[in-house]
Amino acid sequence: MSWLTDPFSLEFVQRALLGGVLVAVLCAVAGTWVIVRGMAFLGEALAHGMLPGVALATVLGLPVLVGAAASAAVMSLGIGALQRRARHSYDTSIGLLFVSMLALGVIVISHAGSFATDATAILFGDILAITSADLVVLGVAVTVGIAAATLAHRSLVALAIDERVARVLGLGPRLAQTVLVALVTLAVVASYQAVGSLLVVGLLVAPAVAARQWTERIPSTMVLAAGIGSAAVAVGLLVSWHAATAAGATIAATAIASAGVSWLLRVATNEVRRRVPALLPVPA
Predict the structure, then answer these.
(1) Burial tier of 274 (Cβ tally within 10 Å: 0-12, 13-18, 19+)
(2) Kindly report the CA angle at 151 between 143 and 69, in degrees rounded to 5?
(3) CA quadruple 69, 75, 77, 80: dihedral positive or negative?
(4) For residue 158, which of 39, 258, 36 has the smallest C-alpha distance?
(5) Are 122 and 102 in contact (CB under 8 A)?
(6) What is the distance in angstroms between the CA of the first residue and the CA of the last residue of the chain?
(7) What is the sign of the dihedral through the CA atoms of 206, 211, 212 and 218?
(8) How far apart (Å, rounded) are the C-alpha atoms in residues 207 and 122?
(9) What is the pTM of this model?
(10) What is the 3-state secondary structure (H, E, C) of the chain?
(11) How many CA atoms lie within 13 A of 53 on its CB side?
(12) Contact 80, 134 (CB under 8 A)
C-alpha cells in the first residue's frame, strides 16, 4: 500500500490535499446553486474574467489572489450594470464581458516578458504550491461562503422556484441573486490556485452534477458534492503523482469523470430496480 500512502507523507502534498478539500467544500456549496439555477456559464465567465486581474497582479508583483478578486468583482458588477442599463439578457451580458475580460488578459500577457511559466500557473493552477497562509485564506473563504449560503438559503430557494413569488413574499430576489453571484465569485477566486482559471468550472460543476443524480434536496446535494469533490482531489493528486501529470488538470479531469460515473451508476441502479419486480414470484 506504499503507492497509496507515500505521496501523502510529504508535507507539500498534505497541504495540497487539505487546500483541495477546502476548495471542494466551497465549490460544492456554490456549485449546487449553479446547477439548480442553470448558471454554469456564469462560473465559466468569472473564471476567465479573472485573467486580466491575475496577469496585472503578476506583472506588478502584487498578490495574485487580490488581482483575481478585483477582476472577478469588476466582472460581476459589469454583468449587473449591463442587465439594468443596457437591458441585455443575462447570457448576453455575460458573453460580452467574458470576451472583453479574456481579451484584456491576453493583451496583458502578450506584452509582458518571460510570462510563459506564470501564464501556465494562471490557466492550470499550481495546487502543489499551496502554503500554510493560503490554507488560512481558504479556510476563511469556506467559512464566509457557508455562512452566506446559510443566511440566504430561503431567498435562494424562492428565487430558484419563481422570482415573482420571491418578490411577493418579500424575500428579496435581487439581493439573493447578488449573493449567488458573490458566492460563485468567491468559489472561483478561491479555486484559482488549485486548478487554474481554465479548469475551475470542472471542480465547481462536476461534483454537484454527480451528487444531483442521488439527491434532490439542496443541503444533501451540497454535502454529497463536497464528498465527491474531496475524493476527486485525493484521487487526482494520487494519479498525478504516479503518472507525472499536472495536478490541477488531473483533479479537474477526475471530478468530471465522477459525474460520468455517477450517471452510469444511476442508470444501472434504475435498470436493476425496474427488473427486480419482474423477477420476484407473483403471490398466490
Answers:
(1) exposed
(2) 50
(3) negative
(4) 36
(5) no
(6) 54
(7) negative
(8) 22
(9) 0.84
(10) CHHHHCHHHCHHHHHHHHHHHHHHHHHHHHHHHHHHHCCHHHHHHHHHHCHHHHHHHHHHCCCHHHHHHHHHHHHHHHHHHHHHHCCCCHHHHHHHHHHHHHHHHHHHHHCCCCCHHHHHHHHHCCHHHCCHHHHHHHHHHHHHHHHHHHHCHHHHHHHHHCHHHHHHCCCCHHHHHHHHHHHHHHHHHHHHHHHHHHHHHHHHHHHHHHHHCCCCCHHHHHHHHHHHHHHHHHHHHHHHHHHCCCHHHHHHHHHHHHHHHHHHHHHHHHHHHHHHHHHCCCCC
(11) 21
(12) no
Whose cell is 443541503? That residue is 219
Residues in the chain: 284
Structure confidence by residue, pLDDT tens digits, 58-108: 777 777 778 877 887 788 777 767 666 656 666 677 777 778 887 887 787
Other CB atoms closer than 10 Å to residue 85's CB: what's the count?
A: 8
C-alpha to C-alpha distance for 17 and 260, rounded to whole angstroms: 23
Q: Is residue 25's pLDDT more than 90?
A: yes
Site of grid cell 475551475? 200
pLDDT by residue (tens digit) across 134-156?
Answer: 889 889 989 999 999 998 888 88
C-alpha cell of residue 61: 508583483
